[in-house]
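request received
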Amino acid sequence: MFRYEIIKEEKDTGARLGRITTDHGVIETPIFMPVGTQATVKSMDTHDLKSLGARIILGNTYHLYLRPGEEIMKKAGGLHRFMNWDRPILTDSGGFQVFSLGDLRKITEEGVTFASHLDGSRHFMTPEKATHLQNVIGSDIMMCFDECAPADSDYDYTKKSMEMTTRWAKRCQDAHERPEDQALFGIVQGGMFEDLRAKSAADLSAMDFPGYAIGGLSVGEAKSTMYHLLDVTVPLLPREKPHYLMGVGSVDALFEGVIRGIDMFDCVLQTRIARNGTAMTSQGKVVVRNAPYQDDFSPLDPECDCYVCRNHTRAYLRHLIKCNEILGARLLTYHNLYFTLSLMEKIREAIKTDSLLALRDTIFQKYGIQKIGE
Amino acid sequence: MFRYEIIKEEKDTGARLGRITTDHGVIETPIFMPVGTQATVKSMDTHDLKSLGARIILGNTYHLYLRPGEEIMKKAGGLHRFMNWDRPILTDSGGFQVFSLGDLRKITEEGVTFASHLDGSRHFMTPEKATHLQNVIGSDIMMCFDECAPADSDYDYTKKSMEMTTRWAKRCQDAHERPEDQALFGIVQGGMFEDLRAKSAADLSAMDFPGYAIGGLSVGEAKSTMYHLLDVTVPLLPREKPHYLMGVGSVDALFEGVIRGIDMFDCVLQTRIARNGTAMTSQGKVVVRNAPYQDDFSPLDPECDCYVCRNHTRAYLRHLIKCNEILGARLLTYHNLYFTLSLMEKIREAIKTDSLLALRDTIFQKYGIQKIGE
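response:
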């Protein structure tokens, strides 16, 4: 069972407050989804994720296909049981990872031959197989297998790629074994070309997916380009379906996405920079690894009430990161996810009270973000 | 304030049930102390440590001296505040680490010149400096700076080394700045030689330390040798002071130590093997990294009620370890510490009920341990 309802649209921007209902629980949107690539959000266990308020997390089909593999996933009874997470899960199709392999893969209409990044073993992935794997994983939200063309692809390549992605989407839809309890989303492609984005959105919309993702953005293009393509694309998606902007999670892009009608986001940024010693705070990024923090006994973020900010100092966190202690990665990950999930909560609240632009301006100013065009 | 009381001695063995009182709380003995080398028990935060029942943890003066260093430790107000741990802390003196450096150090009566394992920088450590550093760290229990002679040292070297360690112990005692709130323990050395162990124990006992450690064991010698040396040494230590066997924490040695009058243990074994994918369970060691566990959906230890065993399967833990996921190291660490702390609780209970030998036999049989001499 999958349902999306719009609760309210913000007065000034049309930003949507919504609610997604799945068999594993309800998600208030707009939402940020922590990424749990290999059946764990790196360094977090499911108790941590619940304590910081995560409502839905991501899994990566490509990684789970290689390890632990389909057989183990089947025997475990799916990813929820395997990792002991009883809230909703979204899986990507593996398309992005496969296409990131570069020379290690070969694309045909039928599917993609690729070499594992782990051991070089050869694999053949098709829309049908990616769908089947997600059926075995049992994610609440599945993604169509798509080609994510490189940002610098020319018009001709991008057009052919987008058209193939649409044909693959149909094959995924046809192969889907559990449509009653897993929602399969279509993915809009089309590179940096407005007309290709529009064509992709129109063709997929006609196929009546329960939700729509926008893929192939935040791949190196300017943020202004991404925002422009959202302006072009989102209005062409069915209004009554959730809109998911894939791989985007910076503070500015979360606001600009919501303002343009996006309901769902995911990004590895929060957890990746945490492991490198960078915190997202109300005053902007704090590279706590740096020397000035060695004797700073204040919390990471004076405005944050998370477990880490209530219990630990910048000096201690810097020490842990400098010593490559696991705990440093874990505490910063916890904080960054809490910061982002709290930000999304503020955004939902601002939609309710029709004050989203004011919130954006306040947060951008404190965070040190220049608005595009200023 | 530091106090040790004997609550009861076990009927058959004389094993001691005791209580240590410090400014940061009370510790029931015999106790196992998790090792927090660099101001963190690897992968655990202080909330984890409390949830698994740790009453006292270790810090390493050598590591804390190099990072974060004395100045930061002083500004932080000591290690308790630096790492946000309000229960007791014991620090070693750095002696063991410095002597482990091998060619990187040079020993004289005055102290030890050594090169940092981090950057090769030169340092000079003396009994006075090691004591001062521990005064700055503010540990509840401090250790004298000792020379831990290699296990294969000859009689002459070991004798001279032990005598110097005794002279250094006096210098530590004289240098101690906070005897009213930090207890400084003497460390018995003497290698594998009974008469040297006896001499060391006698000389240190005469100096009236608030507690006594036995160092230089579990450094490669046979377990039977270690047990024999405990038989020789422990009876020569003041009965009314706590006895601490340094660096020992295997299941068999915990029992054999307690039976011989040891009250305190520490060991990196639990946390180190955890990070390599090995669990300590009621049925013996489980190398969960191994292939047979890939589709084993039972808990790590069917008799354990820890968070990990209640929530996760061997198959999931194996997957995390195989993927080098931080969470794998963390969950196994949690379990191994819980297992060991629970074992010590069982041991304390068995002393109360005069059934320690029966408990030992039961646990050894299930764990697959041969009793020495059988």
